[in-house]
Amino acid sequence: MRKFYIIIFLLGLTSAVFAQFYAKEAGMRGGYTSGITFRVNLEEDLSYEAQLGYRDKGAIFTLIRQKHREIGMDPVGNWKFIYGFGAHAGFYFTDTYRILFREVYFGREIFTPVFGMNGYVGIDYELVELPMSFGVSFQPFMEISLKQIFGLNLWDFGVSVRYRF
Questions:
Q1: Do strands 58-70 and 157-164 pair parallel, antiparallel, or not at all (unpaired)?
Q2: Is 8 exposed, middle or buried (0-12, 13-18, 19+ CB in 10 A)?
Q3: Which of 69, 86, 147, 154 could form a disulfide with 64 if both were Cys (CB 3.0 to 4.6 A apart)?
Q4: What pTM, to 2 d.p., does this model score?
């Protein structure tokens, strides 16, 4: 019930605000790498997005540089095509080690640091009368870790909801 009151309060504050440039966005992303996101829009077509995600019993921090292009599906320009690249670092807890097609079991979970590179392709829709945006994104990544020496994931699709301020 408390969340409902917070949402009503935020919507009440934003009834007179629209057609502005919002410098920041905060929200949530659901998908293979789920978590919270924070985007800083430096210009109309350039932003940086930080994500703190949860994946494979661990946490991943990702920083992505993004470029924005209007798709032109409506006269207001609410549809944005977003693409970019970035890097991530974090850790997993795993009980297996995979190299090529062979898996070795440790018998207990061990701490595994991870580092990698990310790509980003997405489409966002920005509401006119409310400072909210909704998006669908594709974030392929490759990484180096003890879990598997070189990992590649081409299937990290997600859906996000953000509050713009």
A1: unpaired
A2: exposed
A3: 86
A4: 0.82
Alpha helices in the chain (DSSP H): 2-13
**CA 107 from centre of chain:** 33
Count the neighbouring beta carbons within 10 Å of the beta carbon of residue 108.
7
Q: Which long-range contacts (CB under 8 A, 24 or more apart) does 72-81 make?
A: 76/128, 78/125, 78/126, 78/127, 78/128, 79/123, 79/124, 79/125, 80/123, 80/124, 80/125, 80/126, 81/122, 81/123
- Nearest one of 14, 9, 49 to 33, comparing CA atoms: 49
What pLDDT, on the 0 to 100 scale, is given for residue 144?
94
Q: How many helices (H) and strands (E) does the chain have?
A: 1, 10
Residue 71 corresponds to which amino acid? I
| pLDDT at position 21 over 70 | yes
Let me know the angle formed at the C-alpha of 145 by 139 and 150, rounded to the nearest 5 degrees: 70
